């Protein structure tokens, strides 16, 4: 079942990604732009790429263009989505699993905020990942655990703690921290990476005066190319 949908409420950035968390792993192949989508309330579907994390429990929808101003955006899911055992997702009549309203004016001063994270803050009994065992041809590597943070707009990698591994560094909506308990997995013991928006390259950020807020720039609202579902 659906555990959480973010953002919610009013005055959300027109650049915001949308995050959907489920209480169990899904068959990722069944989560597509036709089974999990965004639309203007009761109307037009909004094109969005889909990223998945957490073994198919956490999905991030990245709209390919800025969302419309001062509109209610619905998050819609289909019962064609299946869990690992093949059971259909339970959805309400009409399929709307969440909604939020966008900001009233695009030039409104906005500061970045965290849209969602996975695992959710305060979660307990989260696996730290599995360690490797066996030797030689029988060796089985450990499985890293990802911690994902999704922001309301692209974040400069130079302002993030740690060492983003994107090369060259790119602005991104999603920050992943991958922790491998014994260093045996496919990633270094600790890897931090920014996941850019769909077909989005790095955009220079002007210096921010002390005590001021950065005003949304028109260049941030150029359309972005559609993206297909990207595996974790």
Name some characteristics of this structure.
232 residues, Immunoglobulin-like, four-stranded antiparallel sheet, 12 strands, 0% helix, disordered C terminus
**Structural domain count:** 2
Strand numbers in spatial order across the main sheet? 1-2-6-5
* Proper CATH architecture of the largest domain: Sandwich
Radius of gyration: 19 Å
Strand content: 25-35%
Overall mean confidence score, pLDDT: 73
Which bin fits the share of residues in helices? under 10%
Structural class: mainly beta
Question: Outline, from the CA principal axes?
Answer: globular
Amino- and carboxy-terminal Cα gap? 21 Å
Main sheet specs: 4 strands, antiparallel
- Under CATH, the topology of the largest domain is which? Immunoglobulin-like
Q: N-to-C SSE series?
A: EEEEEEEEEEEE
Number of helices: 0
Extract low-pLDDT stretches. 198-232
Describe the structure.
The protein is an all-beta fold and 232 residues long. The chain has 2 domains: 2-101, Immunoglobulin-like (Sandwich); 114-203, no CATH class. Helix content is 0%, strand content 31%. It has a 4-stranded antiparallel β-sheet, with no helix packed on it. The model is unreliable at 198-232 (pLDDT under 50).
Blueprint (SSEs and pairs):
Layout: E1 2-6, E2 18-22, E3 36-40, E4 45-46, E5 48-53, E6 58-63, E7 72-77, E8 96-101, E9 114-118, E10 145-155, E11 172-179, E12 190-195
Antiparallel strand pairs: 1-2, 2-6, 3-4, 3-7, 5-6, 7-8, 9-10, 10-11, 11-12
Compact overview of the structure:
The chain is an all-beta fold and 232 residues long. The protein has no helices and twelve strands.
């Amino acid at each position: 079942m659906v555990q959480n949908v973010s953002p919610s409420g009013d005055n959300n950035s027109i650049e915001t990604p949308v995050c959907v968390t489920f209480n169990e792993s899904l068959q990722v192949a069944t989560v597509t732009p036709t089974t999990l989508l965004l639309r203007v309330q009761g109307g037009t579907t909004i094109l969005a790429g889909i990223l998945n994390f957490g073994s198919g429990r956490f999905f991030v929808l990245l709209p390919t263009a800025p969302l419309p101003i001062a509109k209610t955006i619905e998050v819609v899911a289909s019962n064609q989505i299946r869990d690992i055992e093949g059971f259909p997702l339970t959805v309400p009549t009409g399929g709307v699993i969440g909604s939020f309203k966008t900001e009233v004016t695009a030039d409104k001063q906005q500061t970045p905020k965290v849209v969602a994270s996975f695992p959710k803050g305060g979660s307990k009994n989260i696996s730290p990942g599995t360690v490797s065992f066996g030797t030689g041809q029988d060796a089985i590597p450990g499985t890293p655990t990802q911690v994902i943070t999704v922001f309301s707009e692209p974040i400069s990698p130079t302002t993030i703690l740690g060492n983003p591994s994107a090369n060259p560094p790119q602005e991104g909506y999603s920050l992943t921290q991958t922790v491998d308990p014994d260093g045996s997995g496919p990633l270094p013991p600790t890897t931090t990476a920014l996941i850019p928006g769909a077909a989005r390259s790095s955009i220079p950020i002007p210096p921010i005066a002390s005590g001021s807020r950065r005003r949304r720039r028109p260049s941030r609202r150029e359309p972005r190319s559609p993206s297909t579902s990207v595996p974790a």
